[in-house]
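Suppose you are handed a protein chain with no further information: no name, no annotation, nothing but its sequence. What can you learn? This example shows the usual starting point.
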Amino acid sequence: MEAAVGKGLVITDLQEIYRACQDGRGDILVVQESFHQAVKILSDRDIAIVDSPIGLDTIDDISSLLALLIDERGGQTVYVPQIPNEELQPIALKTRY
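A reasonable first move is to predict its three-dimensional structure. Written in structure tokens, the prediction is:
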């Protein structure tokens, strides 16, 4: 993962990760086991972070959806107790390109 950081192949912004997963650019998704984030799906390209998982088009944990998208497009998801590089916490995506 560290080598990919130097090449600009790692994304940590949740919105950008979502879009990359939708596009099939995700290679390896690394998620801290303690990470859970509710989001509202605004469109097939956009999400919004929400405090409560209640509501229309709201998902209680985006990491599960991201893992599904990665798997469907030939990538893999790794859950770890702690991501060693603090800049990559709590979720990071290594992209294919």
